Amino acid sequence: MDHRPELRARPIERSNTKSWKHRGSAVIVNLGAAVVAALAFGAWQRSHAPQSTANALSRGGVFYELADDVGYVPRANARMIARSEVEGRTSYDAVYTTGPDHFRIVPEAAANPEACVLLFGDSFTFGDGVNDAETYAAQIVERSGGRVAARNFAVSGWGPHQFLAGLQSGRFEHAVHCRPTDAVFLMIPSLIWRASGVTNPWDTNGPRYRLRADSRPVRDGKLGDPDPYNWRRWIGLAPVSKGDASRLAAAVVVEAMSELKQLYPGIRTHFISYRVARWSDTGFSSGDLAAFEYDLEQAGVLPLPLEAVIPRYRFALRDYVLGPDDYHPNARAHRLVAEFILREIRAD
To answer: How many secondary structure helices (H) and strands (E) does the chain include?
Structure first.
């Protein structure tokens, strides 16, 4: 019997074995190098993370205090002079005043107002850069001749999680002294991330929510609580994916609107989608935001676009913002938001 084929096969088999061992070692080395590089990138990214311009606590100093339910609130009966200059040019010079309930003051309405509007949101509703009488909360009362009462339950740097937490704790309810007929939540795109604590390093004491198996949000500690098993942080990714952040934010908004309807049967709820500019979209494309708004609509929350409030906004941006470096709404934009809300109330 000729054994030559068998003799030839053996060295080839040994050669393949060595080749696979060599390739396997190379894969392991490359994988290890990739992991090390990813971890190094993650560490670098965390150490070079940009700080948000909306860091309310660092800018406000003693104007704010910590709170167990919503993380932080302005102090009661406080006054703050807020100034901003960019390259020697004044962007704004305003005074913020709070009442005994910790929220920004608004004018008193008539004894028996025709409507009572509760306003929720962040600095865009609180009124960063404008005086007390210029916020759209104040303008609702002023422009209605006192026939419509308003409560400004917004705080700079807040997100949807504070909207829900304040309702669940009774904080907002205790500060209402009229029969609410309407509630408005004005939301800029970056608040999607804030609900998960991704872009708000000042909010470590803020309420953290998780989605249950039935997709409803449940309170789960604070945003700053340790989260050692989050592998995304290890390699420099956002601690929450874009999709998960969107789902959580939408669920929190829907739950808050549901809380409002349970507290005040018959209340009309309004959601304003205030797409400002790219700085506030923080990685969300127009398609991402359309999907987020679609999810809200499917859950019974109808998003009202910015174009319905200020039709010329995108074509004459500087007419409606504090300055070229600060896209918070100016007094003119606040007036237009107030007029829009009054129209919505009358239309209903």
So the answer is: 13, 13
- Burial state string for 157-189 with b = 16 or more CB within 10 A and e = fewer than 16: bbbbbbbbbbbbbebbbebbebebbbbbbbbbb
- Dist CA 265 CA 268 (whole Å): 9
Residue at 159: amino acid letter: G
Domain boundaries, the chain: 1-48, 56-347
**CA-to-CA dists, residue 113 to 108, 140, 147, 273, angstroms:** 10, 12, 5, 27
pLDDT in tens, 285-343: 889 999 999 999 999 999 999 999 999 998 999 999 999 889 999 999 999 999 999 99
Task: Please report the pLDDT score of residue 91 as a whole number.
Answer: 78
Which amino acid is it at 35?
A: V
CA distances 188 to 2, 11, 24, 121, 277, Å, are 82, 68, 49, 9, 9
Separation CA 161–CA 208 (nearest Å): 7
81-115 pLDDT per residue, tens: 998 887 777 778 999 999 999 999 999 999 999 99
| CB-based burial label for 155 (10 Å; 0-12, 13-18, 19+) | buried
The closest alpha carbon to 230, from 221, 241, 219, belongs to: 241
182 three-state secondary structure: strand
Phi, psi of 311 (to 5 degrees): -60, -30
Question: Rounded distance, CA 41 to CA 243, Å?
Answer: 23
- Each residue's pLDDT tens digit, 248-272: 999 999 999 999 999 999 999 999 9
Phi/psi for 336 (5° steps) reads: -65, -35
Annotate 251-271 with b (16+ C-beta within 10 A) or e (fewer): bbbbbbbbbbeebbeebbbbb
Q: Domain spanning 56-347 has what CATH number? A: 3.40.50.1110
